[in-house]
Amino acid sequence: MSSDNLEKKIERYEDLIKLGQLASSSLDYKNIQKKAEGKIKKLLDCEKVVIYLYDTKSELLTHNFYKDTKVETVEVKIDEHTFLGSCAHYSAILHITDIQSDIRFRKSPEYLQAVNAQGLLLIPLLSKGQLLGVIEAINSHSGEFSNEDIHFAEAVANQMTMSLENFQLFEKLQKQFIQVVESLADAIGKKDAYTGGHTKRVRHFSEMIGRELDLTYEDMNNLRLAAVLHDIGKIGIEDSILKKEAPLTAEEFVIMKDHPRLGYEIIGHIESLSEVVDGMRFHHERPDGKGYPFGLKGDEIPVIAMIISVADSFDAMISTRPYRKGLAPMIAWQEILDNKGTQFSEKVVDAFDTAFRKTKMFRPEKMEKIKKAG
Ligand SMILES: [Fe+2]
Q: How confident is the model at residue 127 (pLDDT cuts 50, 70, 90)?
């Protein structure tokens, strides 16, 4: 072997190690996938790499192409009519040197024609015989994928399979954890005079806002959990106040205001939940400093807490209490907007506004009627 070849081979092994490090670096698979595609492209020295994931529900291979702000999803059936489908159908590596003369080319995704694809290398991602996805490598720069390329592609597939297995396991555990915590929080909710499902709705509205703010995968997980746990401290508030079917007196309100501190006593010591704890602890703070329990101001308040504050207030307004009827969502929405920058963070209100307009609750025509009647 010439020294040039040896150097190239070493470089490829180094790239393979880097890919392994990337694949195990985070549980945010969406983030890993994009970077992995770039790394695999370099490793296999080809024009383009696309990783498809198998969706067990729809039984389709899917890939999201992101163009500016738009998402385009390509879906491929598992059958012999396309290259991708055949690879998945037979759970076998597929190496085709002249795809355009192959009948399956006609039914293949459009981008294959757009890049003027010639050679294709498809590797299935399999975990204990179950299909997880397919890696598609297009057009080798050296004309044709070599046996060595295929050997490396198999190693790459092993790493990506492991990363996907970890991700799926984490998602499953996270889901179970949220469900357990949610039923716990709901048990407290039953003590409360709120109508049922407050915890679930606060989580739902928080997620809506979080998505508009383009939070990272990790922040979204923290937000979800903090939203579910935001009133956990109410477990320490006496029933006579919690279950009171009338507005609270000033003294009772002082006791009620202690719930973020009580919540901190319950979950504050859990190290791995520090950001979740802050989201819970500061959800009654206000950017103008008039909130409680600390009177924090502006950026001192973590964004997760500010999101929960809007979601919680919105749900409190639209919920019917024993002593008052819930407001129409449009009125509650206007109320949130009117308190932008004082009670609520500006950027969180903007995100809430964008998210709200996408829901069925947004009915401007109803607002006109309410205004006329009022
Ligand atoms: Fe609260």
A: very high
CA distances from 164 to 14, 22, 111, 125 (A): 22, 12, 25, 9
Q: How far is the CA of 255 from the centre of ligand 1 (A)?
A: 12
pLDDT at position 34, please?
A: 85
CB-side neighbour CA atoms (13 Å) of 305: 25
Domain that holds residue 222: 192-373
End-to-end alpha carbon distance in the chain: 87
267-302 pLDDT, tens digit per residue, is 888 888 888 999 999 999 999 999 999 999 999 999
Give yes or no for a cis peptide into 293 (omega within 30° of 0): yes
137 and 37 share a domain?
yes
Domain tally for the chain? 2
> Are 285 and 331 contained in the same domain?
yes
List 54's β-bridge partners, or say none: 61
Q: In Å, what is the CA distance from 117 to each residue of 103, 133, 154? A: 14, 21, 21
pTM above 0.85, yes or no: no
Q: How far is the CA of 215 from the centre of ligand 1 (A)?
A: 22
pLDDT at residue 334, rounded to an integer: 95
Residues 74 and 150 in one domain: yes
Q: How many CB atoms sit inside 10 A of residue 33's CB?
A: 20
pLDDT digits (tens, 9 = 90+) for 185-214: 777 766 655 556 888 899 999 999 999 999
* Position 7 pLDDT exceeds 90: no
Which DSSP letter does residue 325 get? P
Q: How far is the CA of 336 from the centre of ligand 1 (A)?
A: 16
SS3 68: coil
> Which positions ≥6 away from 35 have C-beta within 8 Å?
22
- Distance from the CA of 243 to the center of ligand 1, in angstroms? 15
C-alpha 189 to ligand 1 mean position (Å) = 11
CATH code of residue 323: 1.10.3210.10
Q: Picking from 165-174, 206-215, 219-228, which range would have the lowest pLDDT averaged per residue?
A: 165-174
Residues 209, 161 share a domain: no
Are residues 72 and 8 both part of a single domain?
yes
* Residues 244 and 100 reside in one and the same domain: no
Q: How far apart are CA 211 and CA 221, in angstroms?
A: 11
Tell me what pLDDT residue 194 has. 54
